[in-house]
Fold this sequence. Notes:
Low-confidence stretches: 1-16
Helix content: 40-55%
Radius of gyration: 17 Å
Strand content: 5-15%
Order of helices and strands: HHHEEHH
Mean pLDDT: 84
Structural class: mainly alpha
Amino acid sequence: MSRHRRRGDGGFPHLAPEGARKKLIAATRALYWKRPSEAELAGTGLKPKHYTEPDVHVWPEAWDAIQFFTRVLRQWRVGQGGAYALDYLVVFHELDRLNLPPDRYDEMLAQLRVIEDAALEVIHKD
């Protein structure tokens, strides 16, 4: 898959292909998926067994970013409204430990921001 880069917010490259963004978002949502409980389904006629875990295929070029996120997914900045961002001091430290070339470092950071946005959306979903 070819990558076309453009500069965006904060000077970081963004993932141009929309399909890549959608795959990262789907994979992130799958990380946070949980089967509804009997209590949550009371009165609906549905059972937890009716809900199957999502089957998400992560593209190879996105796999490293998903794996990286699982390393830092507990590093949220939290305020009165709950989690609002990853702690980028930790993120940058962990990225630096990977010794990535500059282009791959930027790509990983851009992918992580997509994942972070998707995770916050799931976390704050009512």
